[in-house]
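Sat 14:20. Reprocessing the chain from the morning session after the first attempt stalled halfway. Input below, unchanged.
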Amino acid sequence: MPFQRFDYVEGELHCEDVALSEIAEAVGTPSYVYSAGAIRENLREYQRSLSGIPHEIHYAVKANSCLAVLAVLAKEGAGFDIVSEGELYRVRRAGGEPSKTVFSGAGKTAAELRYALKHGIGAIHCESVQELELLQSIAMQSRATPRVALRVNPNIDADTHPYIATGLREHKFGIALHDARAVYLDWARWEPLRFTGVSCHIGSQIFDIGVFEEALRQVLALAEHLRDAGLRIRTIDLGGGLAVGYRADQASASISAYGAMLSGALSGTGFRLSLEPGRSIVGQAGVLLTRALYRKPAGRKTFVVVDGAMNDLIRPALYEAHHEILPTVRRQGPAGRCDIVGPVCESGDFLGKDRDIGPCRQGDLLAVGTAGAYGFVQSSNYNSRRRAAEVLVDRGLFRIVRERESLQDLVRGESVWTGSGTVR
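Finished this time. Tokens:
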């Protein structure tokens, strides 16, 4: 289900033991609400399913970088997967360990690599020969000896949305698998880099575990070849990408079945597994709360205009993504289909089309499901709208963990240039 730890209690939608209406009353809308219990539950399922083999779980910070969410995961023993200097800063602020963090991404800058080495990054996943050259130069200057893995591209079709597929030759990510062997063997002698792993990530929202199995087969063969050639390859990193259900009738891919497949394939090989789940840990653990402003009949169409918009949750506009939308209070009455749209001046500003949300009235509160991943992190100030508040619910209590932006926040760092001076 798209709502994990979100349930109706006597007709009213709760997160854990807290009514969402109580949160909305205290915090306002639009707001993101996350269940700490659901986040822990999903991480622990990964840990249980892989308990039979050496492994590391590095949560993909890009899915949801809220400090409070990162802190929950850090306390549970998770490592982190970052793709920017800013994400490493967040990990450190949240109490995460840089030594248990891997640095991914196709476009790392020199400044970002220096920052990562300065703070003792656990490993760097390089995606091109030029990146290796830059990293070697910076490591020599810094007198650092970074652990390195090459991200290899196995040319596997993950059968997902083209914008979140990353494993084909036409994608910008990684080094082609058939070229990676030569790169490893050529660069293995270049100090001070230490090549300790092979990395692969083929995309997101993958339901077919067989696709991961094929990727692992290819990566494992490369790792064994490199080990036989004398390289000290210890870790196989299979990235993230396990799918979650966005529709009421769509089950999530099974974390336990995925873990069982990986454990069976790697048992006895001597390699340590690294995984980088993101969406499958936080996706269904969060909702976007939004309030109905107007109900607007328009010929054969009915629009429900809400205070949440594409700047708050861009996935429907960007990917044509489906998010289930539920009223927080169930009411009796005739149902009717409507489009749930926001105030932004774009026809693409919608959260859901042709939905039956019951007899929705002006002022009613709605919950947009599976919003814990790629929700707030992709939000913006388009139309000079203030970004939403974020709330964490844990063991019957809730707390605002990110304040709603103020009007002053919208212009922070800006100034007016008159041609003769600077006016603040």
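The two ends are 50 Å apart (CA to CA).
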